[in-house]
Automatic annotation (TrEMBL):
Protein name: Glucose-6-phosphate 1-dehydrogenase
Protein family per UniProt: Belongs to the glucose-6-phosphate dehydrogenase family.
Record's subcellular location: Cytoplasm, Cytosol
UniProt cross-references to InterPro entries, sorted A to Z: G6P_DH, G6P_DH_AS, G6P_DH_C, G6P_DH_NAD-bd, NAD(P)-bd_dom_sf
GO terms under cellular component: cytosol
This protein's UniProt keywords: Carbohydrate metabolism, Cytoplasm, Glucose metabolism, NADP, Oxidoreductase
Molecular-function annotations in GO: glucose-6-phosphate dehydrogenase activity; NADP binding
Sequence ranges assigned to domain Glucose-6-phosphate dehydrogenase C-terminal in this UniProt record: 185-473
EC number: 1.1.1.49
GO biological process, one term: glucose metabolic process
PANTHER family referenced in this protein's UniProt entry, alphabetically: GLUCOSE-6-PHOSPHATE 1-DEHYDROGENASE (PTHR23429:SF0), GLUCOSE-6-PHOSPHATE 1-DEHYDROGENASE G6PD (PTHR23429)
Reaction equation(s) it catalyzes: D-glucose 6-phosphate + NADP(+) = 6-phospho-D-glucono-1,5-lactone + NADPH + H(+)
Pfam family, one: G6PD_C
Length: 481
C-alpha cells in the first residue's frame, strides 16, 4: 500500500485511549518510517480543539528524543482536527469533506470511543465517510468492550455486519500484538519437541496469568461497569488460551488460524461458578498514596460495589487433545507485581527412582511481560560430587539472547497490520461469540447474586483461595508463580 494515499481518522481524539495509545503509536510508526509515504491523520471529537492542543495532551506519552523534535513537527503538520457530534450526519459530512480534501485515498477509522456511541458513529461512517471508488478501501478498527454479554455483543455484531464486510472490520485485542503471544505459534509449530507432549497424556495443567501492581487509578467509574472478567479474562486471557490449545492450522493465513481458534473455543463449556475465585482489593495499612486506598475508596466507584478486581477460574477444553486438563485463568489489579505469563505444567515422572519428593514437575513458562522469556524448568544433577537432583532452567531470556533488539509496542504492530490488510491478529466475529458464550452464564450469575468478593490487600498475591483452586486443579505451585 506504499504508493497510495491514506487517511487515518481517530474518532474520540480527545479521549484517554487516543492520548495514551493511538497518537503515540502513530507517531512511532511515522518516526520509524513504517507508514505509507502519503499518510495523514484527522482527529475527531466533540470538543473544539486545535492540533496544537492535541499535541500538548499527547506529547508526554510519545517518548520523544531531543533529536526527534523536527520529525515530530513534521508529524503534527500531517495532522488536522474536526470537531463534531457523534450522532449528527452533517458533522460526519464535514469530516468527510476533510478526508476528501486529501484526494483519492484509503480510509482507516479508529473508534477510540465509549460503546454507547458505536452505533451512531458507524451508521454515520457508512452513510457519508466511506471510500467512494473501487480502488480505495475503508477499514474500521474497534476496541473492546464489545458488549457486556453474549446478547449485547451479538446485537453489536449484527449492527456492524449490516454495515461492513468482515474484512473491513478490525477488532483489536492488543494482547495479540505482543511479541510473546505472536511467538506462541512458532514455539508450538516450529519445534519438533513440543507436538508429542502438547496434550492430556503429558500436560497436568496450564495456568495463564495477568497481574498488575496498580489499582483503578481513577478509572474506577469505567472499570466498575465491567469488572476484571470482562476487562481482561474474557478477552486477553481467553485469546492466549486459544493460541496455546488450538490445533495446528493448515497455514499461517488469517482464516486458517482463526478457524482453529474458534474450534478450540467451541470445545470449552461455560465456566462454572464453583470453579471461580473472585476478589476485590482493600487499602494497605500504613501504605502511602494509591497503596493505602482500596477499590471502594476510589470516589468514582459506586459505594458498596461488589465488582471483582481479581478473578481466577478453571475451565476445560473438551476435545481429544485436552479432555480433563484444567486451564486456569487468573487476573487481578493491585497485586504484588506486573506480570503476564503462560505456565504449562507437565505430569509427574512415572516410576520415579530418585529420593521421594525430589523430582519436581517440568514446567514450560512463556513470560509475556515484563522481560520477555521462554524457560523450561528441568531436573538436573546438582553439579559436583553429589548425586542429588535439583531444579534448574533452560533459560531463554530475551534480554540476554536478543540484546538490543527493539520490541515494538503491541499497538504499533496491530495498526500497521490494519494498513497492510492482515487480520491474523484480530478477533473474528465468531471468536467473539464463543468467548461471550463461555463467560456469559457466569457473568449473569454474578450480576444477579452479587457474591461478595474476597478481600485482598493492595500489593499482595491476591486471595489465598486462588492457591486452593490451583491445587484442586492439578497445578503445583513451585514458588515463582
Ligand atoms: C486493558 C485493560 O485491556 O489491558 C486494562 O482494559 C489493563 O485494565 C490493560 O490495564 C493491560 O495492558 P498491558 O498491555 O499493560 O498488559
Amino acid at each position: 500500500c506504499h504508493g497510495a494515499s491514506h487517511v487515518f481518522v481517530i474518532l474520540g481524539a480527545s479521549g484517554d485511549l487516543a492520548k495514551k495509545k493511538i497518537y503515540p503509536t502513530l507517531w512511532w510508526l511515522y518516526r520509524d518510517g513504517l507508514l505509507p509515504k502519503k499518510t495523514s491523520f484527522i482527529g475527531y471529537a466533540r470538543s473544539k480543539l486545535t492540533v496544537d492542543e492535541i499535541k500538548q495532551k499527547t506529547i508526554k506519552f510519545m517518548k520523544v528524543e531531543k533529536d526527534e523534535e523536527k520529525k515530530l513537527e513534521e508529524f503534527f503538520k500531517l495532522n488536522s482536527y474536526v470537531s463534531g457530534a457523534y450522532d449528527k450526519t452533517e458533522a460526519f459530512s464535514a469530516l468527510n469533506k476533510a478526508i476528501d480534501a486529501k484526494g483519492s485515498c484509503n480510509r482507516l477509522f479508529y473508534l477510540a470511543l465509549p460503546p454507547s456511541v458505536y452505533e451512531s458513529v458507524t451508521l454515520n461512517i457508512k452513510a457519508v465517510c466511506m471510500s467512494k471508488d473501487d480502488k480505495n478501501w475503508t477499514r474500521i478498527i474497534v476496541e473492546k468492550p464489545f458488549g457486556r454479554d453474549l446478547e449485547s455483543s451479538n446485537t453489536l455484531s449484527s449492527h456492524l455486519a449490516a454495515l461492513f464486510k468482515e474484512e473491513e472490520l478490525y477488532r483489536i485485542d492488543h494482547y495479540l500484538g505482543k511479541e510473546m503471544i505472536q511467538n506462541l505459534m512458532v514455539l508450538r509449530f516450529g519445534n519438533r519437541i513440543f507436538s508429542p507432549i502438547w496434550n492430556r497424556e503429558s500436560v497436568a495443567s496450564v495456568v495463564i496469568s495477568f497481574k498488575e501492581p496498580f489499582g483503578t487509578q481513577g478509572r474506577g467509574g469505567y472499570f466498575d461497569e465491567f469488572g476484571i472478567i470482562r476487562d481482561v479474562m474474557q478477552n486477553h486471557l481467553l485469546q492466549i488460551l486459544s493460541l496455546v490449545a488450538m490445533e495446528k492450522p493448515p497455514s499461517t493465513g488469517a482464516e486458517d488460524i482463526r478457524n482453529e481458534k474458534v474450534k478450540v473455543l467451541k470445545s470449552i463449556p461455560p465456566v462454572l461458578m464453583e470453579n471461580v475465585v473472585l476478589g476485590q482489593y482493600i487499602g494497605k495499612k500504613g501504605g502511602e498514596g494509591e497503596e493505602a486506598k482500596g477499590y471502594l475508596d476510589d470516589p468514582t466507584v459506586p459505594k458498596g460495589s461488589v465488582t471483582p478486581t481479581f478473578a481466577s477460574c478453571a475451565l476445560f477444553v473438551k476435545n481429544e487433545r485436552w479432555d480433563g486438563v484444567p486451564f486456569i485463568l487468573r487476573c487481578g489489579k493491585a497485586l504484588n507485581e506486573r506480570k503476564a505469563e503462560v505456565r504449562v505444567q507437565f505430569r509427574d515422572v512415572p516410576g520415579d527412582i530418585f529420593r521421594e519428593g525430589e523430582v519436581k514437575r517440568n514446567e514450560l513458562v512463556i513470560r509475556v511481560q515484563p522481560n520477555e522469556a521462554v524457560y523450561m524448568k528441568m531436573m538436573m544433577k546438582t553439579p559436583g560430587m553429589s548425586i542429588d537432583c535439583e531444579e534448574s532452567e533452560l533459560d531463554l531470556t530475551y534480554d540476554n539472547r536478543y540484546k538490543g533488539v527493539k520490541m515494538p509496542d503491541a499497538y504499533e504492530r496491530l495498526i500497521l497490520d490494519v494498513f497492510m490488510g492482515s487480520q491474523i491478529h484480530f478477533v473474528r466475529s465468531d471468536e467473539l461469540h464463543e468467548a461471550w458464550r463461555i463467560f456469559t452464564p457466569l457473568l449473569k450469575q454474578i450480576d444477579k447474586e452479587k457474591p461478595k468478593p474476597i478481600e485482598y490487600v493492595y500489593g499482595s498475591r491476591g486471595p489465598k483461595e486462588n492457591d486452593k483452586l490451583c491445587t484442586e486443579f492439578n497445578f503445583i505451585y513451585t514458588g515463582t508463580y
